[in-house]
Automatic annotation (TrEMBL):
The lineage of its organism: unclassified sequences, metagenomes, ecological metagenomes. This is Pantothenate kinase. InterPro entries: ATPase_NBD, Type_III_PanK. GO terms for cellular component: cytoplasm. Its main location: cytoplasm. Gene3D superfamilies: 3.30.420.40.
Length: 144
C-alpha cells in the first residue's frame, strides 16, 4: 500500500507517493504552491498521482502555508477519503527531542529532516536546509 507525503512551501509544493514499508518512491509531483488556489487543480493533480494505486487512508505533510494546507486537507477528504496529518500534529516528543525554547517555532520540515537523518544514519549530523538557511545539529546520543 502506498502513502502520500509532501511539503507545502511558500513557492513550491512537493508531493510524493511512497511504498509504505520500503519507502520506495513511486511517484513525485512538483508545482507552484499558489496553484493550490486554482479550482480543481489539486483534484486533477492528485487523481493523476493516484492513478491505479492503492492508497493509505492518511497522508503526512509539512507546511509553512496553513491556508494551502487547509485546502489540500479538504480536497483529500472530500474526493479521496484521505485524512491529512501535519507532522507537528503528532506527538513529536516520542520521535525526536527538540532542544529549543519555543518549540512552536520549529517547522515540520525541519522535524522531518531531523527524524530522517537520525533514522538513516544514527550518527551525529549537521542538516542544512535551503533556500532559507537553517542548521540543525542531530546528536544521536540524545535521541536514545
Amino acid at each position: 500500500m502506498d502513502v502520500l507525503i509532501g511539503d507545502i512551501g511558500n513557492t513550491i509544493t512537493k508531493i510524493c507517493l511512497i511504498e509504505n514499508k520500503s519507502f520506495k518512491v513511486k511517484k513525485v509531483a512538483y508545482f507552484e504552491s499558489e496553484k493550490i488556489l486554482i479550482k480543481n487543480f489539486l483534484r486533477r493533480k492528485l487523481k493523476n498521482i493516484f492513478k491505479n494505486k492503492e492508497i493509505n487512508k492518511f497522508a503526512l505533510f509539512s507546511s509553512v502555508v496553513p491556508q494551502y494546507q487547509l485546502i489540500l486537507k479538504k480536497v483529500l477528504k472530500k474526493f479521496f477519503k484521505i485524512k491529512l496529518k501535519e507532522i507537528k500534529e503528532n506527538n513529536i516528543k516520542k520521535i525526536v527531542k527538540i532542544n529549543i525554547k519555543n518549540k512552536r517555532q520549529v517547522g515540520s520540515d525541519r522535524i522531518a529532516n531531523a527524524v530522517g537523518v537520525y533514522r538513516s544514519y544514527k550518527l551525529n549530523c549537521i542538516v542544512l536546509t535551503f533556500p532559507v538557511v537553517f542548521i540543525n545539529l542531530i546528536n544521536w546520543r540524545i535521541q536514545k
